[in-house]
Amino acid sequence: MTVARSAESVHAVIKAYDVRGVVGAQIDADFVRDVGASFARLMRGEGAERVVIGHDMRDSSPGLAAAFADGVQEQGLHVTHIGLASTDELYFASGSLDCPGAMFTASHNPAQYNGIKMCRAKALPVGQDTGLATITDEVIAGVPTYDGPRGTVDEQDLLADYATYLHKLVDLSVSRPLRIAVDAGNGMGGFTVPAVLGTLPNFIIEPLFFELDGNFPNHEANPLDPKNLVDLQAYVKKTGADIGLAFDGDADRCFVVDEKGDPVAPSAVTALVAERELAKEPGATIIYNLITSKAVPELVNELGGTPVRTRVGHSFIKQQMASTGAIFGGEHSAHYYFRDFWGADSGMLAALHVLAALGEKDRPMSELASAYATYASSGEINSTVADAKERTVAVLEAFSGRSKSVDRLDGVTVQLPDSAWFNLRASNTEPLLRLNVEARSQDEVDALVTEILSIVRD
């Protein structure tokens, strides 16, 4: 049995969906080895014989991945290393090899962080309710020793297979020539974009920050923050690109910028991809989370599909993808999920759909996107509060005479007259209250934001 650990230290790192913390202070090789051993025990109990492991470009990733593999082998499971990979390439490996997987990355977090995203075979999620709680308890108490033979290890390079698979899902053969500016943010997009987009003859790639560097010397690899899109926006205009793409650190999320340098809302991308997928399978189910624009379910209904609303968070989306057989799902955070990709998220696959839609039409990205952006929105606004519940009640009381309905699927979502709505959600890990507002006009959005924040931040 491995050494016991304090519950406080383990709970600080093993979170709702993954493992994440500061290397050295919270995560080290011994800790990761224990997590690998417990994960292997869990997967062995479900019949698995092998675990596939990938890692990002952070300095600490190869060593931590090796320690995790050691823990897996100690529990009698075999290991396949795929080396450098994006998170969605790891999901491809899990799906195509039909085995559980572990990806070493802290996504968009700063250089001192690292973490592990784990999945079952076929990229099925592992979250608090589906295995992480068991792993947490074992790492705290000590992971039992396995008496059987040690597992073996091998290496496979799946990058070319990953690119080939994506190309089979989206036909880009009829695309007009496109100039594509891509900001990889020194993350794994600099590794996967050349393999996936750089091999297509009618695309000219204008690369920005493709050098793999886990210290992120140019900007944070988090395109959800507008300040991290500034370089790409300028680069699109400088290069005369038809479109700009920005990937986060582990390249599982993709953000789009039009030819003018203006960001395209992830909700618009969700609607665009949903339309393409419904054309392929009329009547199919589309998943969207509750802070995605109302334009998404409205379009899905108009096209004869079935929109299904879910809570925020990839584990909820993936559960709904599996239970409903949905063909596609999208989130405001630019995570896009595909049934053809084992129900997992792939920013690269979403990018291929956007490029295909743009390449099939002789009009600019700004015009293409405008058809799907029928509402104005605030984006997510965070407020630090001492008592999120008390502030939420205060807001509800202030709007009690104007609200058409209130639901509590995730926080509170308040429907107002003339299609306006807002959602308030408390963070699970920080003293934050998150606000999202949508309305017909930006003036109405701004007025609602001002009113709500005056209560939240009182």
Automatic annotation (TrEMBL):
A GO term, aspect molecular function: intramolecular phosphotransferase activity
Cofactor: Mg(2+)
Annotated ranges, domain Alpha-D-phosphohexomutase C-terminal: 380-453
Keywords: Isomerase, Magnesium, Metal-binding, Phosphoprotein
Presence of the UniProt keyword Phosphoprotein in the record: yes
UniProt xrefs under Pfam families: PGM_PMM_I (PF02878), PGM_PMM_II (PF02879), PGM_PMM_III (PF02880), PGM_PMM_IV (PF00408)
One GO process term, biological-process aspect: carbohydrate metabolic process
InterPro entries to which the protein is assigned, alphabetical: A-D-PHexomutase_a/b/a-I, A-D-PHexomutase_a/b/a-I/II/III, A-D-PHexomutase_a/b/a-II, A-D-PHexomutase_a/b/a-III, A-D-PHexomutase_C, A-D-PHexomutase_C_sf, Alpha-D-phosphohexomutase_SF
All residue ranges annotated as the Alpha-D-phosphohexomutase alpha/beta/alpha domain in the record: 14-137, 161-261, 268-374
Protein family: Belongs to the phosphohexose mutase family.
Protein name per the record: Phosphomannomutase/phosphoglucomutase
Organism, as annotated: Nocardia uniformis
